[in-house]
Amino acid sequence: MPYLLSFFLCLSLSLFGKEKPRPNIIFILTDDQRWDALGVAGNSIIKTPQMDNLAKKGVYFKNAFSTTPICAASRASILTGLYERTHNYTFQKPSLQVQYTNLMYPKILKENGYHVGFYGKLGVAIDRPEQYFDESDFYDRGPRSDKGGYFYKKIGADTVHLTRYAGQQAQDFISNAPKNKPFCLSVSFSAPHGHDSSVEQYFWQEKSNSLYEDIVFPRPSLGEDLYFDRLPIEVKNGFNRVRWKWRFDTPEKYQRMMRGYYRMITEIDDEIGALRNLLAKKGQAENTIFIIMGDNGYFTGDRQLADKWLMYDPSIRVPLIIFDPRMPNKARTVSDMVLNIDITQSILDFAEIKSPVNYQGESLKPYLNRSDYSLHRDFILIEHLWKLPDIPSSEGIRTDKWKYFKYRYIQAPEELYDLEKDPMETKNLAQEQSHQKILKKLRNKFTRKVAQLRKEQLVAESSSQEQIKF
After folding, report:
1. pTM for this prediction
2. From CA 29, how far away is CA 176, in angstroms rounded?
3. Domain 20-393: homologous superfamily in CATH
4. pLDDT in tens, 283-311
């Protein structure tokens, strides 16, 4: 009788207890793609059919934010699931400490049976980063101050754009991935980041020469003098303004630069389409999750500024799309505030791996499981802690209704905006007597959150510096 019971138990397990395969995960990270540089965001000019299609079949997060609007700190936050205030990494800092690299999602995935790959811009100084991946190749724009900054990698005998190069590496990874393991592939495009040392700034492939050629781009938001004049003198004299002069300070230059910027984003979209076609051909499309995000926001002439770094929404707001073909509630647009540090938790949740207790974000997976799910975040903390005179450091918090921030090392007024009445952040209410109560409340929330994040540091802060390109 015991043998008979064992037989039926084994039979039932083989018929009914077979585990579902864990999903493949593809994480696409773009560099300096602002939140509204997407068709699905309501942009009628840009051509992003693949990203739009994934958003319309999956979940589009219309209020996604980078906790720190600069690539080094933001990318460290995505890797570790921690605020900059906790991991303490940004430019001109030593390598990310091992206590934090132990929390990185690729390391945890690799230790839990995933085949893990990374191609493109890592953007974080890490000792021997290749140890955390099964396959990897780390690179960014090259040293030449012309198109060679983007065109220096080869496929066969052909020198190709970095976007094409990373896309081909991603295809090769998928084609050659082991069949007995799920994979997680991170593709970190250098585009559409301007090539800072070049007069032309934006470089694209020959196939895109005619794209947007007949388009007249609308003038940038808040491009009038009065909005620039309200900024602190240190911001007016800083790198945001310097780079505006590189890219957007004349109408002709603005049109030319915007065409280049959009062309580079469309070329990323092309590579996403190629990956989707390959997955369909290999029969893996129905078990592969796509996560597409930008590392920080971007000023394209807003307030007569360029780049990011500041606490205004165009600088901190990013595109975010998650598509999981296995989920029952696929199409949804989410208005809740979500963060770059949520991606780390989400990737491990999709992979059915328990996350470290240190993570400071939330999993976004429930948004794909339940049509009524909401995080109900009271507020988010935003910060840019790098102490560099040319980019004034600032910090604050944002709720659905309010934005409060202050500069850290310069004498400048606090700023407070009612985002419901003033979503463009044009009327600073911080000095108005009628708003002192909410100002004090937001200050207190901010102070308590900062104290909490400092307590969660795993190692003491380091002030030693090394020079890093940004």
Report:
1. 0.94
2. 22
3. Alkaline Phosphatase, subunit A (3.40.720.10)
4. 999 999 999 999 999 999 999 999 999 99
